[in-house]
Amino acid sequence: MTGSPRARALARELRAARKSTGMSMRRLGERLGWSESKVSRIELAQHQLSETDLSSVLVILGVTGAEREKLLRLARDLDQPAWWELGLDLSPQLTALLDAEQRATRITQFSLVVLPGLLQTRGYTRALFSAYGVPPEQMDRYIELSQLRQGILHKEEPVSYDLYVDESALWRPIGGPRVMIEQLKHLLRAAEAADIRIRAIPNAIGAYAGLLGAFMLVDFVYDRPTVHLEQRCAIGILDAPDDVAVFVETTEHLRELALGESDSRRLIKNYVRQYEQRQPPE
């Protein structure tokens, strides 16, 4: 499916892989017996490669091992149902975020006041979107979009995901006790996966750099890292090395401050117990 978000994600990875070798589009085309314009169309997601042709490109670019398999799998998934079939009018910024998540090898996320979309239950997402004023006729489609995003954590080779979450996101009763019990238990189950690490920043820390706002740091196979700043009406995307370096430094700061994974699980379980005590009888 040319022009789709997944197609553009694959195209960007191929362009980054080519540039990492110093090879020009003309030279790559010559090696493959293609015109330079065909290579250009491929890198603009205007021409869909067969798996055989993609394999040939990867051989010439020297892409092997896990990186090669990741790109081949991305190509195989081009026609799988995803967000563009939900009938939603998505902004270019949101589409760019979804693209980035699809081709990421590692995501480091910091959540300040609400839990991240990649780990939200349907009930938690519904409560948030209701508060945000999402029209009822679009609610189910936006919730489905949120669930589709989470697929990157459950595919055959899932993205490596590190979540740093401020304790305030655990005690804020989004949707009430019943929704929060389900949500926090979902966090605990997610934390059992080998590729997911959840660490809490306790309230006792006081002031720290993360209080300036939530963010997502995304690493790729070949492309340079990007930072995504998600707000209610807009998503900011930073890719300049100096800008990204600020958030890499903040991530190191969070790593030093956060509770360990075991202590974080104990904190989450403690909140589950508190919500269970507050839950009204059925």
TrEMBL record:
InterPro entries: Cro/C1-type_HTH, DUF5753, Lambda_DNA-bd_dom_sf. It comes from the Bacteria. One of its GO terms (molecular function) is DNA binding. Residues 14-68 form the HTH cro/C1-type domain. CDD domains: HTH_XRE. This is Transcriptional regulator with XRE-family HTH domain. It comes from Saccharopolyspora phatthalungensis.
